[in-house]
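Honest question from a wet-lab person: if I give you the sequences of every part of a complex, can you actually get the arrangement of the whole thing, not just the pieces? Trying it with mine:
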Amino acid sequence: MASISEEIKNHGKHDDHHDDHHHEEHFVSKYIFSQDHKMIGKQFLITAVFMGVIAMLLSILFRLQLAWPGESFETLSFFLGEKWAPEGVLSEDMYLGLVTIHGTIMVFFLLTGGLSGTFSNLLIPLQLGARDMASGFLNMLSYWFFFLSSVLMVVSMFVHTGPAMAGWTIYPPLSALPQAISGSGLGMTLWLFSMAIFIAGSLLGSLNYIVTVFNLRTVGMKMTRMPLTIWAFFVTAILGVLSFPVLLSAALLLIMDRMAGTSFYLSDIIVQGEMLTNHGGSVLLFEHLFWFLGHPEVYIVLLPALGLSSEIIATNSRKPIFGYRAMIASILAIGFLSFIVWGHHMFVTGMNPFLGSVFVFTTLLIAIPSAIKVFNYLTTLWRGSIIFTPAMLFAIALVSTFITGGVTGIILADSALDIAIHDTYFVVAHFHIVMGMSAVFGMFAGVYHWFPKMYGKMLNTRLGYVHFWLTLIGAYGVFFPMHFVGIAGAPRRYYNYSVYEEFDTNSLDMMMDLNVIITGFAIMAALAQLIFLFNFFYSIYRGPKAPQNPWNSTTLEWTTPVEHIHGNWPGDLPTVHRWPYDYSKPGSDVDFIPQNVPLAEGEEEH
Amino acid sequence: MESKLIVLLVIILGVIAIAQLVRVYELVSKLRDKKEHEITYRDNQLNAKLMLAFMFIQSGGLIYLMLKYGWTGRGIAASVEGIETDWLLNLNFVIVLFIFFITNALLFFFSYKYVKKPGVKAFYYPHNNKLEIIWTVVPAVVLAVIIVLGLNLWGDLTAESPKNARVIELYAKQFDWTARYAGENNKLGKFDYKLTLGTNELGLVTKETIDSALVDMIEGPTGINSIKDRLNNEKLVFNDSVISAMNVTLSRKERLARLLTQMKKHHNAKNDIDVWDDIIQKDTLYLCVDEPLEIKLRSRDIIHSAYFPHFRAQINCVPGIQTRMKFTPNITTKEMRKKMNNNKFNFILMCNKICGGAHYKMKMMVVVLNKKEFSKWWKNKQKDTFKNKYFGSSGA
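Yes, you can. This is the full assembly:
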């Protein structure tokens, strides 16, 4: 390893002499099969944004059905055609298909690929002072696996039996038996293969991140001088390496059950009049395997967002992040605990109740490091000198949704209470706020903050403000009312609530009122994203040129030239002398001291 | 078609309009020498004020929703266990709402208060161990209370039923529910999915049902013999894929027939009485008020979930295993109608685990009767035991 990094360093020095014309790379190796971490980060971002737009559109389609069941919409027949939306009314099966693919894309493709993929790639080498990732080639492969799996997932929406329809958790036997629902045919096969490839790509990426953090830190960059972003990406990568293979095994066993006649998950089943001989398999096995990934996955999505926001909040409060070491300890504690809480998804599955009580205990423990993080954010803002860049706004919104979604988690983690609200809209509201919104806000914050680093251009701030406020109000407008739909007892994944007509029309009226409000806000929030898309693509080409360090930040990425070069720094790699949060340090004239500035005489490290 | 063109046109014009606005903005910025990364005093103040406004919008919005839609969307709890659940649920809501209001308000208030002001430097404050210990310990103590109360209730909810509990089985399949009441001896008879037939929908195990399942498997209209006949019939011509499909079905059925033969050999008819006195009930589940229930659940095909929103009870129905739950309804349907102020109100059992296209329609009405009404209904049901139905329907 040492020799490789030495080589890279020498390569960097060599560049120094003629870095103006050295980088005439071929189009293919520069933009397509690039091995440069900055380009790969951008590839992840663009692919994820594309997938995110699809998933958002799907959500609008099924929200139309939920707010106005049975009404004819030209939008639906336009996107879904006569087969899945006959006369503009969404079909029952396709409703489930939309819900499933919406969830899958959002969780895996936007928030895992898009968030960790984009920012780990961009920031790990830049903030650590490395020329590139440990293995540029594996890094490239990780993107292309991601791309391939994205393509397969999109293709699965166009097969004649429809996409996977068993929910994003794809519990068998529903997902194993094409007789049970049409989406469990070819659509499910493609889903499984897409996810298998996705996991392979994610593993390559994660291993690379871990190795890079361990080995390629520049001189002086001790682990305890790393920005919290890096700590978050690092722990995220470890979570990914330990948990994604378990999902892969769950998927492989399911593939075997579907194609090779095994009975890992199947037992004593009669479906559509056909008596199967499978015996002895256990559905609970699948649920355990799935959630062994599924819960760390929440933190795979959340931690990078929290890392990005730590950096952004400190920078724009012009204050050090409060309790840097406590923040690291919280990240590590959350990472560790996230592996022993998966059973809280399974309180009502028939799992042994004693096991349930163990998971109640471990799950509620996670609230402690989460609370520490929240209080530390609050104290960072306290007596700061806050500058409201769009990134800062999104980072603050992230803290808000993290609290709002976090506190309802306390109720859901309590197994006795979970019985009453499990699989209702209360759960949907909870995880959309705490995981969906927080992670999306973190992602937006990251894009607004590091756009100058990615593209060398500035995003339009005013459009950023409009985008932010509409998105924030939209998010709460959608998910606050949704809690009340859930408390009223409405089950999730219901095509419509006509069943209520037979037992409680008052409850139905209330739910329909709320559903219309929710859909209204959802459409508003979706339209607000068009502002972002416009700003994003317009600014790539037409945005004003970015200065080298637009936010007066201390971390190393802002010491690189605005124009991207291979190897990141034209001369020697920078040397690190201090932690990354020397903002408004007493005794200094400027309100920030970059990490590569040596300690002044008599100055103490924080 | 025309309307689509118009929509497309509007979108294109909209994008162009925004682009032009942005251009104007950029030119103005250039004239004033304003850089995009320098946030102006005005912008900062505006966002700070919006942050404060949002604090009120957020908490006001939530309070409005609470007052208008409240906790009672599904009414008061109608079971002994549900009352306890609701009590703890409300306590937890008080705690988390308190945390929610305090922390969110602080967040937005700080954002407003500490916006950049000319000449004011941020306060360098990297850490404070005392503070950090306080906000580690306080949440830990609160959580300890929540955990203890929660686990206590969880223990109660999942404990064994009292001996006198009425035993009922709920059988789920795409897309309906069937209930089976244990008969006079309050014991449910055994079941095996391989015995499932039109006359024995729940696959109950008796000497007679094993016999008829075996006969059906071998001689029935789609049984082994009929498949063999079709395969060997020279007048019928099938293509290869149909033949291989038929062979697969044949070997599957032969395997099942062998298993049934085994079952027949080992069957002990002594316990058949447990099956014969069971009572199978569709469409509506009748329960007796204040009577503890022990409910066993299973599924014919895929995972379903038995969800009684008003009794605050829920558990999955899983193919291959039996799950259980218990509760004691303590309000009759009639009383509940009065309390809900809705004379058409009913209790319900819904499916709450995605199970296919018609998932949302899978339900069973539930009626809670008072003791007198229930014993009358129960007495009347005695003529419908499985035994009577089975031999009645098979014409024996």
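Two things worth pointing out. The mean pLDDT of chain B is 91. The first strand of chain B starts at residue 166 and ends at 173.
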